[in-house]
Amino acid sequence: MSELRFTADHEWLRLDNDGLVTVGITHYAQDALGDVVYVQLPEAKSYAQGEEVAVLESVKAASNIVMPLDGEIVEVNGDLEGSPELVNESPLDKAWFFRMRLADNAVLADLLDKAGYDRLLNANADA
Length: 127
Fold this sequence. Notes:
Blueprint: E1 4-6, E2 11-15, E3 21-25, H1 27-33, E4 36-40, E5 46-47, E6 52-58, E7 62-66, E8 71-76, H2 79-82, H3 86-89, E9 98-102, H4 114-126
Antiparallel strand pairs: 1-2, 2-3, 3-9, 4-6, 5-8, 6-7, 8-9
């Protein structure tokens, strides 16, 4: 599964060939934040779904990134610390936040696919 999955918190997840899951925020999320000026990345350790793992600060506000699923963070994207603007420039590519190991990769199927995420965005726009 190399396709992206999405959360209602506007995070994307991608199961990579090595079995790890790469996590970032969506274009919608970075656009809502405005210009990102600081990224605090998580520690490499185990977290429960919903735990705060990272912080983004922008010219508009600060925002927390939460753990999308139970798992262990095994790698962080150190490029973001020196270049937080990558979050705005390349949210679906260069600006991934961390890579994690899930206890069960099958839980990814429970997340939104692209069509489901688009419906979520349209519902939010109509509200």
